[in-house]
Amino acid sequence: MTENKTVKARVFELDFLRGLALLMMVLHHLIYDLRFLLKLDVFAFQETWWFDVLLQPFFLNIFLTVSGISCSFSRSNARRGLRLLLLASALSLVTFLASEWSTLNDYIFFNVLHVLAVGILLYAWITRMERRNRQGKDRVDVVLLIASVLLVWGASWLPVLQNAGYARWWLIPVGLVPEMTRTMTDYMPLVPWLGIFFLGTLIGRRLYVNRQTRFPNAPGWLLSAVMPVEWMGQHSLLIYVLHQPVLLAVLYGLRAAGLI
Questions:
Q1: The whole model's pTM is what?
Q2: What are the pLDDT digits (tens) for 122-135?
């Protein structure tokens, strides 16, 4: 979710796309908080099919693809992946304790941070093998492409396996969810989302070989216009972790003041 600072300064389009997807994610959580936590009869469109099937997956695809592209830039993916895995685990623990000790029923068992952590660690292992065995770039790219296709295609088999009774609690990260009394928030399984991430790494390896912007002659007015969203993309991890506590504090503060 983060990149080398020198890369950030050059590849503005990646920061912008990541920031745009993050902005939509923040707005989605704001709508969720207003509608389901504060019980306000607003933004009913969030429960429509086009939101669930088209709009939300669209921005998640952008976010994961850009994260995969950025991952192909880094030389320290193992360290980044481990840090992100610890953060994702801590987030799961915090939401579990908060839900157990309150009236909330929103548990984060596996979400986008977990997908990214696993994806980054796997990519770090793949590229380590690539360097150690001196395998050709084309061979590794084919592996990434096949993995992407299989993971995305595998999503079509999840309902079949689910109905056949293969769902277990330890298969939740894959996408097979047993009957649960708890509600999973922001659930994102590895199938198919890890495939989207791997597709991003492949795009990065092919289109961003020199780790430079694909739009070197972008006009100044465009760079200025996208700067606020680009800034969000540059600080995506921090914003992702902090935005929901900040939103809840503001919303409940407004409710306590009688404003909503």
A1: 0.89
A2: 999 999 988 888 76
Residue 106 is encoded by which pair of tokens? 């929103």
Question: Whole-angstrom Cα distance, residue 192 to residue 155?
Answer: 5
Q: What is the CA radius of gyration of the chain?
A: 19
Asked if pLDDT for residue 249 goes beyond 50, the answer is: yes
Packing angle between helix 56-71 and helix 12-32, nearest 10 degrees? 140
Give pLDDT, residue 184.
Answer: 87
What integer pLDDT is reported at residue 10 of this predicted model? 63
Task: Please state the length of the chain.
Answer: 260
Task: Indicate whether 144 pLDDT > 90.
Answer: yes
Q: Which two tokens stand for residue 190?
A: 């590895």
- DSSP code string of the chain: ----HHHHHH-HHHHHHHHHHHHHHHHHHHHHIIIIIS-----GGGGSHHIIIIIHHHHHHHHHHHHHHHHTT-S-HHHHHHHHHHHHHHHHHHHHHHHHTSS--EE-SS-HHHHHHHHHHHHHHHHHHHHHHT--HHHHHHHHHHHHHHHHHHGGGHHHHHHTT---GGGTTTT-----SSEESS---HHHHHHHHHHHHHHHHHH-TT---S-TT--HHHHHHHHHHHHHHHTHHHHHHHHHHHHHHHHHHHHHTT--
